[in-house]
Amino acid sequence: MDVRPLHDRIIVRRLVEGEQKSGAIIIPDTAREKPQRGEVIAAGSGKVKDDGTRQPPDVKTGDLILFGKYSGQEVRLDGEDYLIIREEDILGVLDTTEQK
Question: Which parts of the chain register pLDDT below 70?
Answer without folding.
Answer: 1, 17-35, 98-100
